[in-house]
Amino acid sequence: MSAPEERYSDALETAARHARQWLESQETRLVGPRVSATDLAADFGGPLPREGMPAAEVVEYLATKAEPGLMAMPSGRFFGWVIGGTLPAALAADWLVSAWDQNAGLRFATPATAAIEEAAGTWLLELLGLPEGSDVGFATGATMANFTGLAAARWRLMADAGWDLDGDGLSGAPRIRCFVGQERHDTIDLGLRYLGLGRPTVVPADRQGRINPRELDRALASAVEQASAAGSGPAPLLVCLQAGNLHSGAFDPFTEAIAIAIAKAHGAWVHVDGAFGLWAAAVPELAALTAGLQGADSWGTDAHKTLNVPYDCGIAVVRDAQALRAAMGLHTSYLIQDADGAADPFESVPELSRRARGVPVWAALKSLGRDGVAAQVRGLVLHARQLAEQLSALEGVEVLNDVDYTQVSLAFGDDATTRAVTARIIADGRVWMSGSRWRDRDILRISVSNRSTDDADVAVAVAAVRDAVAAVRG
Ligand SMILES: Cc1ncc(COP(=O)(O)O)c(C=O)c1O
User: Fold this and answer.
1) Could you tell me if 430 and 464 are in contact, meaning their C-beta atoms sit under 8 angstroms apart?
2) Is the overall model pTM greater than 0.70, yes or no?
3) What is the CATH number of the domain that holds 164?
Protein backbone atom coordinates (compact mmCIF):
# COMPACT_ATOMS: atom_id res chain seq x y z
CA MET A 1 0.00 0.00 0.00
CA SER A 2 1.42 3.40 -0.97
CA ALA A 3 1.88 6.22 1.53
CA PRO A 4 -1.22 8.41 2.06
CA GLU A 5 0.51 11.43 0.45
CA GLU A 6 1.14 9.42 -2.74
CA ARG A 7 -2.45 8.31 -2.86
CA TYR A 8 -3.61 11.88 -2.53
CA SER A 9 -1.29 13.13 -5.22
CA ASP A 10 -2.20 10.39 -7.74
CA ALA A 11 -5.90 10.97 -7.20
CA LEU A 12 -5.61 14.75 -7.23
CA GLU A 13 -3.50 14.77 -10.38
CA THR A 14 -6.01 12.54 -12.11
CA ALA A 15 -8.83 14.85 -10.99
CA ALA A 16 -6.92 17.96 -12.12
CA ARG A 17 -6.23 16.43 -15.54
CA HIS A 18 -9.88 15.55 -16.07
CA ALA A 19 -11.04 18.93 -14.72
CA ARG A 20 -8.78 20.72 -17.20
CA GLN A 21 -9.99 18.55 -20.08
CA TRP A 22 -13.59 19.21 -19.12
CA LEU A 23 -13.12 22.96 -18.86
CA GLU A 24 -11.09 23.12 -22.09
CA SER A 25 -13.82 21.18 -23.93
CA GLN A 26 -16.43 23.83 -23.13
CA GLU A 27 -15.59 26.05 -26.06
CA THR A 28 -16.27 23.44 -28.70
CA ARG A 29 -18.51 20.74 -27.22
CA LEU A 30 -22.26 20.44 -27.67
CA VAL A 31 -23.93 21.69 -24.52
CA GLY A 32 -26.43 18.97 -23.60
CA PRO A 33 -25.66 15.57 -22.07
CA ARG A 34 -25.56 12.64 -24.52
CA VAL A 35 -27.04 10.04 -22.17
CA SER A 36 -29.73 9.91 -19.49
CA ALA A 37 -29.40 9.13 -15.78
CA THR A 38 -31.04 5.78 -16.50
CA ASP A 39 -28.40 5.04 -19.16
CA LEU A 40 -25.69 5.67 -16.58
CA ALA A 41 -27.24 3.60 -13.81
CA ALA A 42 -25.30 0.46 -14.68
CA ASP A 43 -21.95 2.28 -14.70
CA PHE A 44 -22.41 3.71 -11.25
CA GLY A 45 -24.79 1.24 -9.61
CA GLY A 46 -24.97 -2.50 -9.10
CA PRO A 47 -23.98 -4.23 -5.90
CA LEU A 48 -21.52 -2.39 -3.66
CA PRO A 49 -18.16 -4.00 -4.47
CA ARG A 50 -16.65 -6.08 -1.70
CA GLU A 51 -13.15 -4.83 -2.38
CA GLY A 52 -12.11 -1.27 -2.97
CA MET A 53 -10.24 0.32 -5.87
CA PRO A 54 -7.16 2.61 -5.69
CA ALA A 55 -8.13 6.28 -5.42
CA ALA A 56 -6.65 7.42 -8.75
CA GLU A 57 -8.49 4.60 -10.54
CA VAL A 58 -11.75 5.60 -8.83
CA VAL A 59 -11.29 9.17 -10.07
CA GLU A 60 -10.37 7.97 -13.58
CA TYR A 61 -13.46 5.74 -13.70
CA LEU A 62 -15.72 8.47 -12.32
CA ALA A 63 -14.55 11.16 -14.73
CA THR A 64 -14.60 8.92 -17.79
CA LYS A 65 -17.98 7.35 -17.13
CA ALA A 66 -19.65 10.61 -16.05
CA GLU A 67 -18.47 12.66 -19.04
CA PRO A 68 -21.28 11.76 -21.49
CA GLY A 69 -23.87 12.59 -18.83
CA LEU A 70 -22.53 16.04 -17.98
CA MET A 71 -24.30 19.22 -19.05
CA ALA A 72 -21.85 21.88 -20.23
CA MET A 73 -23.06 24.37 -17.65
CA PRO A 74 -19.68 26.15 -17.56
CA SER A 75 -20.06 26.89 -21.29
CA GLY A 76 -20.78 30.41 -22.53
CA ARG A 77 -23.49 28.77 -24.68
CA PHE A 78 -25.45 27.48 -21.68
CA PHE A 79 -28.42 29.79 -21.04
CA GLY A 80 -30.70 27.59 -18.92
CA TRP A 81 -32.46 28.53 -15.64
CA VAL A 82 -30.19 30.98 -13.79
CA ILE A 83 -27.05 29.00 -13.27
CA GLY A 84 -23.84 31.03 -13.54
CA GLY A 85 -20.32 29.76 -13.96
CA THR A 86 -17.05 29.58 -12.13
CA LEU A 87 -14.14 32.00 -12.05
CA PRO A 88 -10.69 30.38 -12.09
CA ALA A 89 -9.66 31.85 -8.72
CA ALA A 90 -12.95 30.75 -7.15
CA LEU A 91 -12.69 27.21 -8.53
CA ALA A 92 -9.10 26.80 -7.34
CA ALA A 93 -10.03 28.24 -3.93
CA ASP A 94 -12.87 25.73 -3.75
CA TRP A 95 -10.38 22.90 -4.32
CA LEU A 96 -8.32 24.28 -1.46
CA VAL A 97 -11.42 24.39 0.74
CA SER A 98 -11.87 20.66 0.13
CA ALA A 99 -8.20 19.92 0.75
CA TRP A 100 -8.06 22.07 3.90
CA ASP A 101 -11.14 20.19 5.13
CA GLN A 102 -12.08 22.78 7.74
CA ASN A 103 -15.38 22.59 9.56
CA ALA A 104 -15.96 26.31 9.20
CA GLY A 105 -18.37 26.85 12.09
CA LEU A 106 -16.04 28.01 14.86
CA ARG A 107 -13.64 31.00 14.83
CA PHE A 108 -11.56 29.41 17.58
CA ALA A 109 -11.05 26.13 15.72
CA THR A 110 -10.74 27.40 12.13
CA PRO A 111 -9.45 30.97 12.37
CA ALA A 112 -8.20 31.16 8.78
CA THR A 113 -11.52 30.37 7.16
CA ALA A 114 -13.38 32.50 9.71
CA ALA A 115 -11.19 35.51 8.92
CA ILE A 116 -11.49 34.95 5.16
CA GLU A 117 -15.29 34.64 5.29
CA GLU A 118 -15.60 37.69 7.53
CA ALA A 119 -13.52 39.69 5.06
CA ALA A 120 -15.63 38.41 2.16
CA GLY A 121 -18.79 39.43 4.04
CA THR A 122 -17.47 42.93 4.69
CA TRP A 123 -16.46 43.32 1.03
CA LEU A 124 -19.91 42.19 -0.07
CA LEU A 125 -21.67 44.76 2.09
CA GLU A 126 -19.42 47.46 0.65
CA LEU A 127 -19.80 46.24 -2.93
CA LEU A 128 -23.59 45.96 -2.79
CA GLY A 129 -24.13 49.06 -0.66
CA LEU A 130 -25.80 47.09 2.13
CA PRO A 131 -25.81 48.44 5.70
CA GLU A 132 -22.46 48.30 7.45
CA GLY A 133 -22.55 45.93 10.42
CA SER A 134 -25.13 43.60 8.87
CA ASP A 135 -24.48 39.94 9.55
CA VAL A 136 -23.50 37.75 6.59
CA GLY A 137 -24.02 33.99 6.50
CA PHE A 138 -22.87 31.55 3.82
CA ALA A 139 -25.62 29.00 3.14
CA THR A 140 -26.01 26.47 0.32
CA GLY A 141 -27.97 28.47 -2.26
CA ALA A 142 -30.50 31.24 -2.64
CA THR A 143 -33.33 29.11 -1.25
CA MET A 144 -31.50 28.64 2.03
CA ALA A 145 -30.18 32.21 2.05
CA ASN A 146 -33.76 33.47 1.76
CA PHE A 147 -34.88 30.97 4.39
CA THR A 148 -32.18 32.31 6.73
CA GLY A 149 -33.33 35.92 6.28
CA LEU A 150 -36.96 34.89 6.78
CA ALA A 151 -36.07 32.95 9.94
CA ALA A 152 -34.49 36.09 11.38
CA ALA A 153 -37.63 38.02 10.38
CA ARG A 154 -39.86 35.51 12.14
CA TRP A 155 -37.80 35.70 15.33
CA ARG A 156 -37.79 39.51 15.42
CA LEU A 157 -41.48 39.91 14.56
CA MET A 158 -42.44 37.42 17.28
CA ALA A 159 -40.15 39.06 19.84
CA ASP A 160 -41.63 42.48 19.02
CA ALA A 161 -45.11 41.02 19.47
CA GLY A 162 -44.03 39.83 22.94
CA TRP A 163 -44.04 36.16 21.95
CA ASP A 164 -41.30 33.77 23.12
CA LEU A 165 -40.81 31.80 19.93
CA ASP A 166 -37.89 29.77 21.26
CA GLY A 167 -39.81 28.74 24.36
CA ASP A 168 -43.37 28.42 23.11
CA GLY A 169 -42.98 27.64 19.41
CA LEU A 170 -45.60 28.63 16.88
CA SER A 171 -48.66 27.10 18.47
CA GLY A 172 -50.95 29.92 19.62
CA ALA A 173 -48.46 32.55 18.43
CA PRO A 174 -49.54 35.81 16.81
CA ARG A 175 -50.02 35.28 13.11
CA ILE A 176 -47.30 36.81 10.95
CA ARG A 177 -48.90 38.00 7.74
CA CYS A 178 -46.62 37.49 4.76
CA PHE A 179 -46.90 39.34 1.46
CA VAL A 180 -45.20 38.36 -1.78
CA GLY A 181 -45.39 39.64 -5.33
CA GLN A 182 -47.31 37.54 -7.82
CA GLU A 183 -44.06 36.69 -9.59
CA ARG A 184 -41.82 35.96 -6.62
CA HIS A 185 -39.69 32.87 -6.98
CA ASP A 186 -41.54 29.80 -5.69
CA THR A 187 -38.75 29.08 -3.23
CA ILE A 188 -39.88 32.07 -1.15
CA ASP A 189 -43.09 30.13 -0.48
CA LEU A 190 -40.91 27.14 0.35
CA GLY A 191 -38.96 29.17 2.92
CA LEU A 192 -42.19 30.40 4.49
CA ARG A 193 -43.43 26.81 4.55
CA TYR A 194 -40.23 25.55 6.27
CA LEU A 195 -40.85 28.23 8.89
CA GLY A 196 -44.50 27.31 9.49
CA LEU A 197 -45.64 30.73 8.27
CA GLY A 198 -48.17 29.33 5.84
CA ARG A 199 -49.32 30.57 2.48
CA PRO A 200 -48.54 34.25 1.81
CA THR A 201 -50.92 36.89 0.48
CA VAL A 202 -50.12 37.32 -3.20
CA VAL A 203 -49.90 40.91 -4.42
CA PRO A 204 -50.54 41.55 -8.15
CA ALA A 205 -47.62 42.49 -10.36
CA ASP A 206 -47.19 44.57 -13.52
CA ARG A 207 -46.42 43.20 -17.00
CA GLN A 208 -42.74 42.75 -16.19
CA GLY A 209 -43.53 40.95 -12.96
CA ARG A 210 -42.78 43.86 -10.59
CA ILE A 211 -44.93 44.04 -7.48
CA ASN A 212 -47.60 46.72 -7.75
CA PRO A 213 -47.04 49.15 -4.83
CA ARG A 214 -50.64 50.36 -4.78
CA GLU A 215 -51.85 46.79 -4.44
CA LEU A 216 -49.27 46.18 -1.74
CA ASP A 217 -50.55 49.23 0.11
CA ARG A 218 -54.10 47.92 -0.15
CA ALA A 219 -53.19 44.40 1.01
CA LEU A 220 -51.20 45.65 4.00
CA ALA A 221 -53.96 48.10 4.99
CA SER A 222 -56.50 45.30 4.91
CA ALA A 223 -54.30 43.05 7.12
CA VAL A 224 -53.79 45.86 9.63
CA GLU A 225 -57.54 46.55 9.72
CA GLN A 226 -58.39 42.88 10.19
CA ALA A 227 -55.95 42.59 13.09
CA SER A 228 -57.34 45.67 14.76
CA ALA A 229 -60.96 44.51 14.26
CA ALA A 230 -60.02 41.21 15.88
CA GLY A 231 -58.45 43.12 18.78
CA SER A 232 -55.33 41.01 18.35
CA GLY A 233 -52.82 43.87 18.64
CA PRO A 234 -50.59 45.20 15.88
CA ALA A 235 -50.27 42.72 13.00
CA PRO A 236 -46.70 41.44 12.51
CA LEU A 237 -46.06 41.96 8.79
CA LEU A 238 -43.43 40.40 6.54
CA VAL A 239 -43.02 41.67 2.99
CA CYS A 240 -40.89 39.78 0.45
CA LEU A 241 -39.61 41.73 -2.53
CA GLN A 242 -37.53 40.60 -5.47
CA ALA A 243 -34.40 41.83 -7.24
CA GLY A 244 -34.35 39.96 -10.54
CA ASN A 245 -37.41 38.20 -11.94
CA LEU A 246 -36.73 34.74 -13.33
CA HIS A 247 -38.46 35.52 -16.63
CA SER A 248 -38.00 39.23 -17.20
CA GLY A 249 -35.08 40.08 -14.92
CA ALA A 250 -37.24 42.92 -13.52
CA PHE A 251 -36.68 44.48 -10.11
CA ASP A 252 -39.46 45.45 -7.70
CA PRO A 253 -39.84 49.20 -7.01
CA PHE A 254 -37.98 49.05 -3.70
CA THR A 255 -38.09 52.67 -2.61
CA GLU A 256 -41.85 52.85 -2.92
CA ALA A 257 -42.64 49.35 -1.66
CA ILE A 258 -40.37 49.65 1.38
CA ALA A 259 -41.79 53.08 2.27
CA ILE A 260 -45.30 51.57 2.12
CA ALA A 261 -44.32 48.60 4.27
CA ILE A 262 -42.76 50.82 6.90
CA ALA A 263 -45.69 53.26 6.93
CA LYS A 264 -48.24 50.49 7.36
CA ALA A 265 -46.70 48.97 10.42
CA HIS A 266 -43.81 50.02 12.57
CA GLY A 267 -41.56 47.04 12.54
CA ALA A 268 -42.73 45.46 9.27
CA TRP A 269 -39.83 43.34 8.08
CA VAL A 270 -38.85 43.54 4.41
CA HIS A 271 -36.84 40.75 2.83
CA VAL A 272 -35.36 40.95 -0.67
CA ASP A 273 -34.78 37.85 -2.77
CA GLY A 274 -31.84 38.94 -4.89
CA ALA A 275 -30.74 35.47 -5.97
CA PHE A 276 -29.10 36.81 -9.12
CA GLY A 277 -30.23 40.45 -9.15
CA LEU A 278 -28.57 41.74 -5.99
CA TRP A 279 -25.32 42.01 -7.97
CA ALA A 280 -26.78 44.80 -10.11
CA ALA A 281 -26.03 46.99 -7.09
CA ALA A 282 -22.32 46.64 -7.95
CA VAL A 283 -22.79 48.40 -11.29
CA PRO A 284 -23.13 52.20 -11.14
CA GLU A 285 -25.17 52.51 -14.35
CA LEU A 286 -27.68 49.89 -13.10
CA ALA A 287 -28.29 51.83 -9.89
CA ALA A 288 -31.87 52.64 -10.87
CA LEU A 289 -32.75 48.92 -10.74
CA THR A 290 -31.68 48.44 -7.13
CA ALA A 291 -32.50 51.93 -5.82
CA GLY A 292 -33.98 51.76 -2.33
CA LEU A 293 -33.18 48.08 -1.85
CA GLN A 294 -30.74 48.99 0.90
CA GLY A 295 -33.71 50.03 3.05
CA ALA A 296 -34.81 46.40 3.55
CA ASP A 297 -34.03 44.28 6.62
CA SER A 298 -32.62 41.18 4.98
CA TRP A 299 -31.39 40.01 1.60
CA GLY A 300 -30.70 36.61 0.05
CA THR A 301 -28.50 35.89 -2.93
CA ASP A 302 -26.53 33.11 -4.60
CA ALA A 303 -22.87 33.73 -5.40
CA HIS A 304 -22.90 30.93 -7.97
CA LYS A 305 -25.31 32.79 -10.14
CA THR A 306 -23.99 36.25 -11.01
CA LEU A 307 -20.65 36.31 -9.18
CA ASN A 308 -19.66 32.93 -10.66
CA VAL A 309 -18.22 30.90 -7.80
CA PRO A 310 -18.69 27.10 -7.64
CA TYR A 311 -21.81 25.57 -6.16
CA ASP A 312 -22.85 25.71 -3.35
CA CYS A 313 -22.84 29.29 -2.16
CA GLY A 314 -25.94 31.16 -1.01
CA ILE A 315 -25.44 34.33 1.00
CA ALA A 316 -27.83 35.70 3.63
CA VAL A 317 -27.40 39.30 4.78
CA VAL A 318 -29.37 40.46 7.82
CA ARG A 319 -29.29 43.97 9.23
CA ASP A 320 -30.47 42.83 12.67
CA ALA A 321 -27.60 40.57 13.68
CA GLN A 322 -29.21 39.81 17.03
CA ALA A 323 -32.32 38.43 15.35
CA LEU A 324 -30.26 36.28 12.99
CA ARG A 325 -28.16 34.83 15.77
CA ALA A 326 -31.23 34.23 17.92
CA ALA A 327 -32.85 32.38 14.99
CA MET A 328 -29.82 30.31 13.96
CA GLY A 329 -27.45 30.27 16.94
CA LEU A 330 -26.87 27.60 19.54
CA HIS A 331 -25.02 27.65 22.84
CA THR A 332 -23.57 24.55 24.25
CA SER A 333 -20.47 23.87 26.28
CA TYR A 334 -18.53 21.83 23.73
CA LEU A 335 -18.59 24.60 21.13
CA ILE A 336 -15.63 26.58 22.41
CA GLN A 337 -15.88 30.28 21.61
CA ASP A 338 -12.98 32.45 20.56
CA ALA A 339 -11.40 34.35 23.44
CA ASP A 340 -12.60 37.70 22.07
CA GLY A 341 -16.24 36.53 22.29
CA ALA A 342 -17.03 37.40 18.66
CA ALA A 343 -20.00 35.60 17.11
CA ASP A 344 -19.16 32.33 15.41
CA PRO A 345 -19.91 31.64 11.74
CA PHE A 346 -22.36 28.84 12.57
CA GLU A 347 -24.62 31.38 14.31
CA SER A 348 -25.55 32.99 10.98
CA VAL A 349 -26.62 29.93 8.98
CA PRO A 350 -28.85 26.86 9.36
CA GLU A 351 -25.94 24.41 9.50
CA LEU A 352 -23.63 23.76 12.43
CA SER A 353 -21.01 21.89 10.38
CA ARG A 354 -20.27 23.12 6.89
CA ARG A 355 -17.55 23.66 4.31
CA ALA A 356 -15.92 27.10 4.12
CA ARG A 357 -17.99 28.14 1.16
CA GLY A 358 -17.24 31.82 1.73
CA VAL A 359 -13.60 31.25 0.73
CA PRO A 360 -14.33 31.03 -3.03
CA VAL A 361 -16.36 34.24 -2.66
CA TRP A 362 -13.31 35.94 -1.15
CA ALA A 363 -11.16 34.59 -4.01
CA ALA A 364 -13.66 35.77 -6.63
CA LEU A 365 -13.79 39.26 -5.14
CA LYS A 366 -10.01 39.41 -4.71
CA SER A 367 -9.44 38.32 -8.31
CA LEU A 368 -12.03 40.67 -9.82
CA GLY A 369 -11.86 43.68 -7.55
CA ARG A 370 -14.76 46.12 -7.41
CA ASP A 371 -14.28 47.15 -11.05
CA GLY A 372 -14.04 43.55 -12.20
CA VAL A 373 -17.34 42.59 -10.57
CA ALA A 374 -19.03 45.57 -12.22
CA ALA A 375 -17.47 44.64 -15.59
CA GLN A 376 -18.61 41.03 -15.22
CA VAL A 377 -22.24 41.96 -14.47
CA ARG A 378 -22.15 44.60 -17.22
CA GLY A 379 -20.97 41.90 -19.66
CA LEU A 380 -23.91 39.64 -18.77
CA VAL A 381 -26.39 42.48 -19.34
CA LEU A 382 -24.68 43.51 -22.59
CA HIS A 383 -24.92 39.99 -24.00
CA ALA A 384 -28.54 39.60 -22.91
CA ARG A 385 -29.35 42.84 -24.72
CA GLN A 386 -27.43 41.72 -27.82
CA LEU A 387 -29.40 38.49 -27.83
CA ALA A 388 -32.71 40.32 -27.45
CA GLU A 389 -31.84 42.78 -30.21
CA GLN A 390 -30.62 40.19 -32.71
CA LEU A 391 -33.36 37.68 -31.94
CA SER A 392 -36.16 40.22 -32.18
CA ALA A 393 -34.94 41.01 -35.70
CA LEU A 394 -35.72 37.42 -36.78
CA GLU A 395 -39.07 36.73 -38.34
CA GLY A 396 -41.51 34.94 -36.05
CA VAL A 397 -39.56 35.74 -32.88
CA GLU A 398 -41.14 37.87 -30.18
CA VAL A 399 -39.14 39.20 -27.22
CA LEU A 400 -41.66 39.43 -24.39
CA ASN A 401 -39.78 41.37 -21.72
CA ASP A 402 -37.90 44.64 -21.33
CA VAL A 403 -34.31 43.46 -21.24
CA ASP A 404 -32.91 45.65 -18.48
CA TYR A 405 -30.87 42.90 -16.90
CA THR A 406 -29.77 39.36 -17.77
CA GLN A 407 -32.99 37.58 -18.76
CA VAL A 408 -34.67 37.28 -22.15
CA SER A 409 -38.05 35.61 -22.62
CA LEU A 410 -39.19 34.70 -26.12
CA ALA A 411 -42.23 33.29 -27.87
CA PHE A 412 -42.54 31.99 -31.44
CA GLY A 413 -46.26 32.37 -32.06
CA ASP A 414 -48.58 29.88 -30.41
CA ASP A 415 -47.61 27.64 -27.49
CA ALA A 416 -47.17 24.52 -29.60
CA THR A 417 -44.71 26.29 -31.92
CA THR A 418 -42.77 27.73 -28.97
CA ARG A 419 -42.51 24.27 -27.40
CA ALA A 420 -41.41 22.75 -30.70
CA VAL A 421 -38.73 25.42 -31.24
CA THR A 422 -37.47 24.94 -27.68
CA ALA A 423 -37.23 21.17 -28.15
CA ARG A 424 -35.42 21.66 -31.46
CA ILE A 425 -32.85 24.01 -29.93
CA ILE A 426 -32.13 21.56 -27.11
CA ALA A 427 -31.82 18.64 -29.55
CA ASP A 428 -29.49 20.68 -31.76
CA GLY A 429 -27.12 21.14 -28.82
CA ARG A 430 -25.13 24.19 -29.93
CA VAL A 431 -26.77 26.13 -27.11
CA TRP A 432 -28.99 25.18 -24.18
CA MET A 433 -32.05 27.20 -23.19
CA SER A 434 -35.01 26.16 -21.10
CA GLY A 435 -38.73 26.43 -21.64
CA SER A 436 -41.13 27.92 -19.13
CA ARG A 437 -44.58 29.41 -18.83
CA TRP A 438 -44.99 33.14 -18.27
CA ARG A 439 -48.05 35.38 -18.46
CA ASP A 440 -50.16 32.48 -19.71
CA ARG A 441 -47.85 31.61 -22.56
CA ASP A 442 -45.27 28.96 -23.21
CA ILE A 443 -41.94 30.70 -23.61
CA LEU A 444 -38.26 30.08 -24.21
CA ARG A 445 -36.13 31.55 -21.43
CA ILE A 446 -32.59 32.76 -21.85
CA SER A 447 -30.48 33.62 -18.83
CA VAL A 448 -27.05 35.13 -19.40
CA SER A 449 -25.37 34.30 -16.12
CA ASN A 450 -21.98 33.00 -17.10
CA ARG A 451 -19.10 35.45 -17.44
CA SER A 452 -17.70 33.37 -20.32
CA THR A 453 -20.58 34.19 -22.70
CA ASP A 454 -19.11 36.38 -25.44
CA ASP A 455 -20.12 37.89 -28.78
CA ALA A 456 -19.31 34.64 -30.60
CA ASP A 457 -21.62 32.71 -28.24
CA VAL A 458 -24.36 35.23 -28.93
CA ALA A 459 -23.89 34.68 -32.67
CA VAL A 460 -24.12 30.88 -32.24
CA ALA A 461 -27.25 31.29 -30.10
CA VAL A 462 -28.95 33.51 -32.67
CA ALA A 463 -28.08 31.03 -35.44
CA ALA A 464 -29.39 28.10 -33.37
CA VAL A 465 -32.71 29.86 -32.70
CA ARG A 466 -33.02 30.95 -36.35
CA ASP A 467 -32.41 27.40 -37.59
CA ALA A 468 -34.86 25.93 -35.08
CA VAL A 469 -37.59 28.38 -36.07
CA ALA A 470 -36.97 27.64 -39.77
CA ALA A 471 -37.09 23.87 -39.18
CA VAL A 472 -40.32 24.05 -37.15
CA ARG A 473 -42.01 26.40 -39.58
CA GLY A 474 -40.87 24.17 -42.46
C1 LIG B 1 -35.14 34.87 -7.94
C2 LIG B 1 -34.71 33.52 -7.45
N3 LIG B 1 -34.88 33.18 -6.16
C4 LIG B 1 -34.51 31.99 -5.67
C5 LIG B 1 -33.92 31.04 -6.48
C6 LIG B 1 -33.54 29.71 -5.90
O7 LIG B 1 -32.14 29.63 -5.90
P8 LIG B 1 -31.31 28.33 -5.54
O9 LIG B 1 -31.57 27.40 -6.66
O10 LIG B 1 -29.90 28.84 -5.48
O11 LIG B 1 -31.76 27.81 -4.23
C12 LIG B 1 -33.72 31.35 -7.84
C13 LIG B 1 -33.11 30.36 -8.76
O14 LIG B 1 -32.87 30.62 -9.90
C15 LIG B 1 -34.11 32.62 -8.34
O16 LIG B 1 -33.92 32.96 -9.63
Assistant:
1) yes
2) yes
3) 3.40.640.10
